[in-house]
Structures are given as C-alpha cells and as structure tokens.
Amino acid sequence: MSINKIIDILKEQQATFVLLLCHKSADADAVCAAYAFQGLLKRFLPDLVIEIGAPQGVNKPTKQLLENLPITVNLKPNIEYASVIFLIDMNTVEQLDDVVDRLKASNAPMIIIDHHAPNSDTKQICNFSLINEQAAATCEIIYDMYQQAGVQLNLNEAKALFTGMAFDTRHFALGDSDTFRIAGGLVSVGVDAQAMLNLFSNPIDNSERLAKLKACKRAKIIKNGEWIIALSHVSAYEASAAKSLVDLGAHMAAVAGKKAGKLEVSLRCNRDFSEKTGIHLGKDVSMPLGELLGGVGGGHAMAAGVNAKGEVCDALDKCLKLLKEKISSNL
Ligand SMILES: [Mn+2]
After folding, report:
1. In this structure, are 43 and 22 located in the same domain?
2. What is the mean pLDDT of residues 230-251?
3. Are residues 85 and 133 in the same domain?
4. 167, 223, 252, 311 — which has fewest CB within 10 A?
C-alpha cells in the first residue's frame, strides 16, 4: 500500500480528523513513527487535523523522549470523531483492552502500519494494511514512505525516526542493511547520531535491575540437544528479564509474570537459535501459546510475547512443550 493510496482513501472519506493510534504503553518506535507519519500526511493535506493517540499511556523512555521532541500525544484520543483510524506499530488490537470495543463500534476505515507478523483478529478489523515484517522498526516503513513520496524530512522528523529505530533495534545491534541505509539517510538530514543515542539512553531503575536478577536466580535451565533454554518468572519487566537471560548465555528464554490476574509471557532468543531452528517466536510459539492460554500472542522472530490468563507454571510448561515440538519438527 502506497502513500498515494492512503491519500486517496483520506480524500474519498472527506476526512477532517484522523487518529494515529499507538499500542499500550507506547514505545519510541510507535510514537516516533506516528509523529513522522503525521508530518508526511500534513504535506499532502495541510488542513487535516491529525492526532496521535495513546489511550493506554506511553512507556518511561518515551516520556523522556516527549520532553525532547515536539511530539504531542493525546492520552484520551477522540476515537468516535475520527474519519480514518491508523494503527501504528500494533500487531494486536487486544493490546488496547477496552479501547477495542470503541474501535469496533467506529465506522471509520482502519489502516494498520506495522512491522509485526499480522494477527488474525487485527486483520479482521482493519480495512487496509501496510505491513513489512522485514523492517526492523515501523519508523523504517515511514522513512521509505517519505522516499516514495519524494518528500524531504525536517530535522525533528529525522530525529524521531532515528530514535524509534534505535529503540527497536537495541541501539542498532539488531539492525540489518536497510536499517543502516536509513540511518545514513537520517544522518544526512542532520541527525547527530551520538547525541541522539546519549540523549535517550535511559539508566535503568532498581526495580528493573531486581527483576532481571530475580529472573536469573529463579531460572530453570533446560538443555534440548545443542540448545540451552531458560524459563523463569518475575512480577514485572518480563521482557527485560528474558532479554537478560539471552544476554547471559541462554539460546532462548521465556519469562512469565502475573499481575492483577493477567498473565504475560515474554520470549527472546538469539540469532543462532532463530536461524538454525527456523523457529519464528511470534508465529510459531507466541501465537499458539496465546491460544492455548485463552489470550493472544504475537511478535517477531526473535522477540515475542503473550497476554493471557492462567498460571505462570502452566504457561511455562506449555511454552516449553511447544518449543520442543517445534525444535524436533524443524530438525
Ligand atoms: Mn516497533
């Protein structure tokens, strides 16, 4: 789907107000992609009112980011008034909890712009999609839309795209050739790469440090052939804990946590595991695990998550079973 097609849809709808919706505790990729996309739409339709909405808040690093870039995010977006709704960087609408009902009640066409493996529920409510699973960040997709349209980024838009990419690629460690091509383009607009990275490198707080250390202490280590799998549980920072276990040496880690009756499982693996087993954590593990646990799962090849119900132990058992099945079937 091209920018021209998007502009056509906005014109057909005689859109006056458009909403760019970000996921729960919106991250830098979501908010920055929305900001740059807002700028691109403005070039074509200067009279259009375009709001960035994060009905379930933004995460901590993003709060810091909003103090440094002129991005306005509405935490109580006007879903009911939108002529067209864009879902930015959002692989599952279930992440939006009760907002889903308001979205479903809306007659506005919905367009998803994302780099996650699409979830079937989300596809159902979206009329159009622009999904590139190869992109390391949604910000990369937006950059290519500017290129396609022949529109120059201004410095703030370039800074935003750079920051979103830095977050989703772990400061470019997970970047591929496209990531560096785009980063080069952004630097040529005037982005000072080192300054941007320093500005947004957030020192982690003690509760996150403790969660990571507890996850290591509690980890159950399983050897499956050549693979070392670590399973653990914490009550917060599951994703950060899973990443830490992989950084420490596990090929694959799953960390579960339960808070207020809601169960979350975060999955991470290293590149070697991903490439040699051919397992896509989002599609092959998180999605079926989400279904097994009465919730939803999704994500990327090397980083994925599940939001569901149930107990931590049962979730980790089921996760391990799925992994073992996938490893043996892909041998
Ligand atoms: Mn993203």
Report:
1. yes
2. 97
3. yes
4. 223
Ligand 1 midpoint to CA 239 (Å): 14
166 Cα: distance to centroid of ligand 1 (angstroms): 10
Structurally, the chain folds into a number of domains equal to: 2
Q: Is the pLDDT of residue 268 over 70?
A: yes
User: Ligand 1 centre and the CA of 138: distance in Å?
Assistant: 5
**Cα angle, residue 112 at apex, residues 142 and 100 outer, rounded to 5°:** 135
Same domain for 8 and 128?
Answer: yes
pLDDT in tens, 154-194: 999 999 999 999 999 989 999 999 999 999 999 999 999 99
What separation in Å is there between the alpha carbon of 132 and the centre of ligand 1? 11
What is the 226 CA–ligand 1 centroid distance (Å)? 31
Cα 251 to Cα 256: distance, rounded to the nearest angstrom? 17
We report the CATH number of the domain holding residue 219 as 3.10.310.40
Which pTM was predicted? 0.72
The first and second tokens of residue 138, run together, are 């949604």
As a dihedral over the C-alpha atoms of residue 78, residue 16, residue 139, residue 282, rounded to 10 degrees, the angle is 50
Domain final position from 150, 174, 200: 200
Grade residue 60 by pLDDT with cuts at 50, 70 and 90.
confident
User: Mean of the per-residue pLDDT values for the chain?
Assistant: 93
| Shared-domain flag, residues 71 and 117 | yes
Which residues are found with C-beta within 5 Å of the ion, ligand 1?
29, 89, 138, 168
Give distance in angstroms: CA of 285 to centre of ligand 1: 19
Say whether both 145 and 189 belong to one domain.
yes
Which of 52, 35, 33, 66 has the alpha carbon at shortest distance from 139? 33
> What token pair was written down for 159?
């800074």
